[in-house]
Amino acid sequence: MARDTILFDINETVLDLAPLRPKFERALGDATVASTWFAMLLHASTVCALTGVKTGFAELAGLTLDRLASLHGRTLSGEDRGDILDSFASLAPHDDVRPAVEVLRDHGYRTVAFSNSSLNLVTKQIANSGLGGNFDVALSVEETGSFKPDAKVYEFAAARLDRPIGDLRLIAAHDWDTHGALSAGMQAAYLDRTGAPYNPLFRRPEISAATMVNLADRIIAADAASI
Length: 227
Description:
By secondary structure, the chain is an alpha/beta fold. It has helices spanning 21-28, 33-51, 57-71, 78-87, 97-106, 119-128, 151-161, 175-183, 212-226; strands spanning 5-8, 110-115, 137-140, 168-172, 187-191, 207-209. Helix 1 (21-28) runs antiparallel to helix 4 and helix 5 (97-106) packs parallel to helix 9 (212-226).
């Protein structure tokens, strides 16, 4: 089949960020700001992509963490700062990831880890999560000098994977990421991990589900029907 390659967003889609919460509780006195920090990080990366600021996701993560601490009237100790940032390399996968990826691979799909994180970090994340045997390729946007959802990072992925962009599909738990992929001409599937409304202004994939396993089943059925 033409659509034989699936890209997976990593942070939140594949890897569970929940273990960061107690670290923010200890460092800033509020576990819920873990989500605030990640949202701020994604916002900063989008601004950098839009305005041509050259940086890396790790640098942005540290700068955003310092800003969040300042907004809470805190200065992070080097130990707390390092503990939060270093934890990003050793997050566990969501429970539904491994069985879904295995089903897709059993049906002949090539699976690709595709992240805003550096190649060094995403490689460590996949290895430390125990998913090293579940992904054929790890791709980072860092070579592009930009971040998702910039169209050129999806185009970069297609060129690197030697596939027409329209034959690739991205799985992501972020509506801005699936919107970015669709806007660039890529297929997409939305993983609704939170139940939050999908932004009605964004392009929405035809395929969505609340679990990765259900999403995989729908992708397989949709691709089989398109042959």
